[in-house]
Amino acid sequence: MTVEELENIIKHSEVSRVQFKERIDDNYKIGTEMVAFSNSRGGNILIGVRDKTGDMNPLSPDELRETNNSLSNIATQNVDPRIGIETDTVYVDGGSILVVTIKEGVNKPYKDNKGIIWAKQGSDKRRIVDNNEIAEMMEECGTFISEVSSVDATIDDLNFDTFKEYLLKRFENPLRNSGIEPAEYDKKSLDEIISAISRNISLDRLLTNLRLMRPDGHLTLAGLILFGKAPQLLRPTLTAKCISFYGNSIGGSRFRDKVNDADMEGNLSHQYATIMAFFRRNLRYVQPGDEFNTQGVLEVSYRALSELVMNALIHRSLVRPAPIRIFILDDRIEIHSPGTLPRGLAVDDIEKGTSMPRNEQLFYHANFLLPYSGAGTGILRALDEGVKMKFDNDEQTKEFVITIPRKALDEPASNSDELVSASDEPGNELGRNQGKEKSNEVDSKSNKAEESSGVKSNQVAEKSNEAGQKSNQAEEPSNGKSNQVGQRAKVTKKQKDILNFCSVPRSAQEIMDRIGIDNQTNNRKRYIQALIDMGYLKPLYPESMTASNQRYVKVKR
Known about the structure:
By secondary structure, the chain is of the alpha+beta class. The protein has four domains: 3-129, Schlafen, AAA domain (Methyltransferase, Cobalt-precorrin-4 Transmethylase, Domain 2); 148-233, no CATH class; 240-445, Heat Shock Protein 90 (2-Layer Sandwich); 476-554, Arc Repressor Mutant, subunit A. The protein contains 22 helices and 18 strands. The protein has helices at residues 3-11, 27-39, 61-77, 131-141, 160-170, 172-177, 190-197, 203-209, 221-227, 261-264, 268-282, 302-315, 347-351, 360-365, 378-384, 429-437, 439-449, 453-474, 479-486, 493-501, 508-515, 521-533, and strands at residues 18-21, 43-47, 79-80, 85-92, 95-102, 111-112, 118-121, 124-127, 240-245, 255-258, 285-286, 297-298, 324-328, 332-338, 390-394, 399-405, 537-539, 552-554. A six-stranded mixed β-sheet has the order 10-9-13-14-16-15, with helices on one face. The protein has a four-stranded mixed β-sheet with strand order 1-2-5-4, sandwiched between helices. A two-stranded antiparallel sheet has the order 3-6. The longest helix has 22 residues, at 453-474. The N and C termini lie far apart (67 Å).
């Protein structure tokens, strides 16, 4: 360290990673500082600097030697388990300043020689007595894995429909090898599916092998979160709080919408669906550009929101007794996820796509329940959608916060090809009411755009002709369609993604979630029906296209 660097540190006074000590006059106190740094993110102790004023009082050569010896003894005798330290000497006028570097520990929690656990809190330190905080320290070091810990729940607490859905996706190839085709999935019981996966395995053994149940018959925490009927009965904070406020303060008492706790109760898939429905009914649907006759687009990319929600659900800290919190305000969206980034990760790392899953079991198994790739690059994919967002890895509140700015009502909509519609969303009265509040503004623009019925008629006619031309090009009636299939019509990038996704039967909702758009009539026609017409996709129940259990699967060739 140079003198200039030292002076710059002293100038900023004591902070969470720097402590000033004029001299070592109490080995125990220095030991507690080492413990606190080791249990936190590491830091430096500057010896030869007055902690009250920041003035330098350099060490003499004899003091420097004596201090170095004392520090070595403290690191081994006053810290449990013992730690290694690094020292650096900065020569200044009148003597030396000793810079002691303590790294973040890999064997947390560290204790002083009285058995007390300390951690940094701002420029000071605090005593740790809460078991959840101790468990979090151990989890960071890999000495405790919360998601495989036992909970007071058994097989009777499982949602078998969700588990069956998981098995159908997870063991697609073994099922086909056993002669069970996708069209037969709904007719098969859970026991028949398990038997097809392996003849010599029971439900208990399968759950144990998947690390979703302990040998004593109790579910693991991951098993409860993924497949439980009501995980919140045992872990009330494993939920999400979703509130849409009036104004720009989360301290406000007036809100447009709030998800009831009872509505959020359920496993991971249920929570994901509930949160995304909250976004769909509370965010604005705006017209792209100056076109008033096109479908509305969600003001923030649906796909980006989907990735961020899945990231919060899968990578949250399971030992912190706090829910995920999602706030919609007039000027921004905030997503608060319990727990800071896993040890070794920084905001710059995740912006580059670096992944370090906190909950490996959730990370792996959710790949067969939620519409994500499981590659650990969800935030990178959200950024690729062009959504501006700010990340805050808050060490004080122990949470990771994502803030997305919202455009003012008079700002132009961002470009997006993710078509969604509020009108076809069930239970979207709130979204429609927000639209009604802006009806005068829309009517005014509409009057300017279409001043007379003649102009409007011409515009409609022109659009009709254009639509007709496109329709003839895309899918001519009868012979046109067969020619298209016969010529192996090209599919778009999204359609290819759908086909790969539908290697096992998928519902319309799953398909729409996969490509990040709203499940409404026009989008189903554009993406699902188009692939059916081209002969690439087929419904499991063609005799009843609107069946509630309708699924779509890729046509084998």
